[in-house]
């Protein structure tokens, strides 16, 4: 087995709905932008969302690899920027329930991945299940995502507490998602760190933050990661910085074998030869029955052992026809427990409604506890959002809910307003707030007095003066300017006429004087 190359990074969280899969996807793409070979391993058996976030549909999953139907190369999906994705499936999270053959196949695949890539990003399920803990302990670098939501902090706290009980002694790196800004993320982390240091005393470090950005919501709906959808957005900038810092952080760290953790658990020799990528199921000869009669020709019912022995024998030859399969099912059906049919009721036809009633009854008995209700609602909304790529609530109801629950300071509200205006501007190519429309609505109100109008007008004129260093020119001002220009022209014309009259008068005076002189020279009659 060659020396592993890829650094294994597990992305996890104490609860669902905190943007774990989105973070893993955008981080992986940001690392590929640094010319790194990256593979994302979707280890969330219950909600495998990586392919949904990337807008790609896998033909085969990890289950096909474990069953020996496909090899590793055939199940890997090509993503954008050269990213590779191993689509998950139910079974990978339940490592303890895999057969020895499947375990060897899985370990061989993990070894291959760690040799072919620079980074292997593991997207785990949320919570404190054994599968999550195993992936964290097997990785050399773990990222735990928290949000300002109180349940996120408490559940991540529980995750760290369980890790400590399992003797996990590596540093866990905390990433704050949905933070307003760097200062806000630091405040959230400090509050979380204080509780961790006081009650469980484990080693955690602040890794960074992802700023709350509507681009993240749009990216899920459009099935295009934020770093591709809007590279200049605030969230994309955070992912770029996160990838750079992370690459520096792990650059000098020694690369461990990711699969060695499970080998040690199962006592598997790491030098043992691993199976080929397309394993063939075989059986020892001494396990086959001496005499086997095909069930199709048997008139009397077979015992369970006879049916099982016949199946094993036929499977070992690799030549099973459709007729044989039908015969197996027919003979084995007799061993299936028969449940007497009961009259179908309306409740039986709607088990989901019954489940809902049970949940409602559970909450009602506990007087609808605040924290549990919030947890159920937020989790279901996130699951719906990720599964169907659309919000459960309308934009209007989501906005009203956001502002109804808002309890921040003036600066936070101002920031949210800026984000909303920016989103509107990008979507509709015009500003969200129309000043003229607002003023028109304001002055047309019956409650707007003449004095209020005068005050508003005076304030607007004053603001104009300060902004442009000149007084605002009304139509009357323009008319007055035109009148003054016309008066100036007329005044010039009048001056020219007066000058001409003066010249004429002077000429006439000179002529009269000359005429008088001539008359004086003439002899009198």
UniProtKB/TrEMBL annotation:
* Coiled-coil regions, chain positions: 473-507
Q: Which PANTHER family match?
A: CELLULOSE BIOSYNTHESIS PROTEIN BCSQ-RELATED, SEPTUM SITE-DETERMINING PROTEIN MIND HOMOLOG, CHLOROPLASTIC-RELATED
Cited Gene3D superfamilies = P-loop containing nucleotide triphosphate hydrolases
Q: What is this protein called?
A: Bacterial motility regulatory-like protein MotR
Q: Which UniProt keywords apply?
A: ATP-binding, Coiled coil, Nucleotide-binding
CDD domains cross-referenced by the UniProt entry = FlhG-like
Annotated Pfam families? ParA
- SUPFAM superfamilies noted in UniProt: P-loop containing nucleoside triphosphate hydrolases
Q: Name one GO biological process term.
A: negative regulation of cell division
GO cellular-component term (any)? cytoplasmic side of plasma membrane
């Amino acid at each position: 087995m060659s020396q592993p190359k890829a650094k294994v990074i597990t992305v996890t969280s104490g609860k669902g709905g905190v943007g774990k899969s989105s973070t893993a996807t955008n981080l992986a793409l940001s690392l590929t932008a640094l010319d790194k070979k990256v593979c994302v391993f979707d280890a969330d058996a219950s909600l495998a969302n990586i392919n949904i976030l990337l807008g790609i549909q896998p033909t085969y999953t990890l289950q096909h690899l474990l069953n020996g139907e496909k090899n590793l190369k055939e199940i890997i999906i090509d993503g954008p920027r050269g990213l590779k994705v191993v689509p998950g499936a139910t079974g990978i999270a339940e490592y303890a329930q895999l057969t020895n053959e499947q375990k060897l196949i899985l370990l061989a695949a993990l070894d291959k991945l760690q040799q072919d890539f620079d980074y292997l990003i593991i997207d785990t399920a949320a919570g404190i299940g054994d599968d999550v803990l195993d992936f964290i302990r097997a990785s050399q670098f773990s990222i735990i995502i928290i949000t300002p939501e109180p349940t996120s902090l408490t559940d991540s706290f529980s995750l760290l507490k369980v890790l400590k009980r399992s003797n996990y002694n590596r540093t866990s790196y905390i990433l704050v998602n949905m933070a307003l800004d760097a200062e806000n993320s630091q405040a959230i982390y400090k509050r979380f760190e204080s509780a961790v240091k006081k009650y469980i005393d484990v080693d955690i470090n602040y890794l960074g933050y992802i700023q709350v950005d509507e681009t993240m919501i749009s990216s899920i709906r459009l099935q295009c990661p934020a770093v591709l959808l809007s590279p200049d957005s605030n969230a994309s900038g955070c992912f770029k910085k996160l990838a750079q810092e992370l690459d520096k952080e792990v650059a000098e760290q020694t690369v461990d074998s990711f699969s060695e953790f499970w080998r040690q658990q199962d006592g598997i020799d790491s030098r043992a030869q691993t199976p080929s990528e397309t394993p063939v199921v075989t059986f020892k000869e001494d396990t086959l029955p001496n005499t086997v009669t095909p069930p199709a020709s048997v008139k009397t019912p077979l015992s369970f052992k006879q049916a099982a022995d016949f199946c094993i024998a036929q499977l070992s030859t690799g030549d099973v026809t459709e007729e044989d399969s039908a015969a197996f099912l027919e003979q084995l059906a007799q061993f299936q427990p028969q449940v007497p049919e009961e009259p179908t009721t309306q409740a039986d036809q709607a088990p989901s409604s019954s489940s809902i009633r049970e949940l409602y009854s559970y909450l009602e008995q506990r007087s609808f506890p605040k924290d549990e209700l919030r947890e159920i609602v937020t989790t279901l909304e996130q699951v719906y959002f990720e599964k169907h790529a659309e919000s459960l609530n309308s934009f209007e109801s989501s906005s009203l809910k956001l502002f109804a629950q808002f309890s921040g300071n003036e600066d936070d509200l101002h920031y949210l307003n800026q984000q909303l205006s920016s989103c509107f501007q990008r979507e509709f190519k015009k500003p969200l707030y129309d000043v003229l429309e607002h003023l028109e609505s304001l002055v047309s109100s019956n409650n707007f007095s003449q004095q209020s109008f005068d005050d508003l007008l005076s304030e607007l004129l004053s603001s104009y003066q300060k902004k442009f260093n000149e007084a605002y020119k009304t139509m009357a001002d323009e008319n007055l300017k035109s009148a003054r220009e016309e008066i100036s022209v007329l005044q010039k014309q009048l001056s020219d006429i007066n000058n001409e009259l003066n010249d004429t008068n002077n000429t006439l005076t000179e002529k009269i004087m000359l005429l008088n002189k001539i008359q004086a020279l003439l002899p009198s009659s």
